[in-house]
Fold this protein.
Amino acid sequence: MKNILNAPFVEEMMHTAANMYRLGWDERNGGNISWMLDAQQVGEYLDLNQVLRVLPLGFDAKAIAGKIFIVTGSGKYFKNVDRDPELNLGIVRISENGQDAELLWGFSDGGRPTSEFPAHLMSHMARLAVDPENRVVMHTHPTYTLAMNYVHELSDSKFTHSLWQMCTECIVVFPEGVGVLPWMLCGTNTIGEATAEKMKEFRVVIWGMHGVYGAGKTMDEAFGLIETVEKAAQIYMLTAHLPRVNTIRDEEMIELAEFFGVNYRKDFLLG
């Protein structure tokens, strides 16, 4: 059996968490990541028949029964993940009845997955229904995106339009736009269900006055989506109080989207 600490998915989680903390997106124990893994690959590092603990999920995840995830822990700090991955990360499998998470590795102090894990799993299920290759869900608190929540209308179309205007790449990177939710109580199935509903249309969902959920086929894709939204929000916040002399016009965004062949939300432009 190979050393689990050398597994590429453990190393990637360590590097990503450290990078997100370095960027200031995940203060204290803020933020969480879940990544659906290939069972055959995990089997090279762990005995899949050895379940350490059974952790109730609090909702029905039977649609992804048997799927294995590496996930950050509840109350854990991103800055500590690369220092002690076995304490701060866990690898779990969704039970056959969909009601529990079977711990295969990690959470060595008796911990459990992030309190947002049900919301993650609901988003995984929603994204898999529209993109069978989706693997990653990432929640984080990027500073400028969060600041923008306080000065901009929380509307899918209007928030998206403002972001698209900030960087030429935006309509190409997230042509479907971003979904936006009002402030809701975190750590509940209610916000998880609302996020999953948005995830049917968007790979990025903003939690009003809280943070962002991003999804993707790979860690890079999910991270890059959030990174691009955050850069656009930063430019918005740096210029919002100044006279607008120039902007990217709607017809120019259409030209961009059609040149790069992306399927953009036409109803978010021109009126």
